[in-house]
């Protein structure tokens, strides 16, 4: 899958960089950032990490190239989650760009408006990196993680939880759900706001102006 994906992703980046129409220049870089993080997420899942999860245990075994390079499993897990969260924030940034272009025009925003936008996006990008930090302080030891996995899944084969790369992020699964779920709700609600605003704005504009 990686051999198929990489050429397609590279072609997509080429199209964004060199074939974007002049009237879409204002959205060009937000499209490129979104394309980069979504492409990296694809490559991470299919090649770099290749997570083998053991649901409902919040953990599993990474089977990708990073394991062959002896990258710690927990580092791979956090890298995968951060790629996913940054993809979500990039989607938000893309629609925020479109929404603000409709409000103020693509090139007529004041310094104050730009400062507010950059602060808003900076907070969201910081949240993508920081929302998993509380989990880092709850990572159980190898033995404790194995005991938790056996308790949750008594039928789990020993070759899985005895694998040297097997890891459990936390023994408090409700805490994981609350963090990930809270982050998802916050980001999704913002995306929906920008999408709905943009749709309403387009519908209210004269047809010849939209064109």
TrEMBL record:
Source organism of this protein record: Caenorhabditis tropicalis
Listed InterPro entries: 7TM_GPCR_serpentine_rcpt_Srh, Nematode_rcpt-like_serp_H
Transmembrane intervals: 34-54, 74-95, 115-137, 175-200
Keyword S-adenosyl-L-methionine part of the UniProt annotation: no
Keywords linked to the UniProt accession: Membrane, Transmembrane, Transmembrane helix
Protein's UniProt name: 7TM_GPCR_Srx domain-containing protein
Matching Pfam families: 7TM_GPCR_Srh (PF10318)
């Amino acid at each position: 899958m990686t051999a198929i994906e990489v050429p397609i992703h590279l072609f997509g980046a080429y199209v964004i960089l060199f074939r974007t129409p002049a009237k879409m220049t204002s959205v060009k870089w937000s499209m490129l950032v979104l394309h980069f993080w979504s492409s990296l997420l694809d490559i991470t899942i299919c090649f770099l990490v290749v997570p083998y999860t053991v649901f409902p245990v919040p953990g599993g075994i990474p089977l990708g190239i990073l394991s062959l390079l002896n990258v710690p499993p927990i580092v791979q897990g956090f890298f995968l989650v951060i790629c996913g969260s940054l993809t979500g924030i990039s989607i938000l940034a893309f629609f925020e760009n479109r929404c603000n272009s409709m409000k103020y025009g693509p090139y007529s925003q004041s310094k104050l408006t730009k400062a507010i936008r950059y602060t808003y996006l900076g907070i969201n990008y910081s949240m993508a990196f920081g929302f998993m930090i509380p989990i880092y302080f709850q990572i159980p030891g190898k033995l404790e993680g194995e005991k938790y996995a056996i308790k949750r899944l008594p039928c789990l084969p020993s070759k899985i939880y005895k694998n040297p790369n097997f890891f459990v992020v936390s023994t408090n699964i409700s805490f994981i759900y609350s963090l990930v779920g809270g982050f998802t709700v916050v980001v999704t609600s913002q995306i929906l706001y920008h999408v709905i605003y943009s749709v309403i704005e387009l519908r209210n504009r004269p047809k010849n102006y939209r064109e």
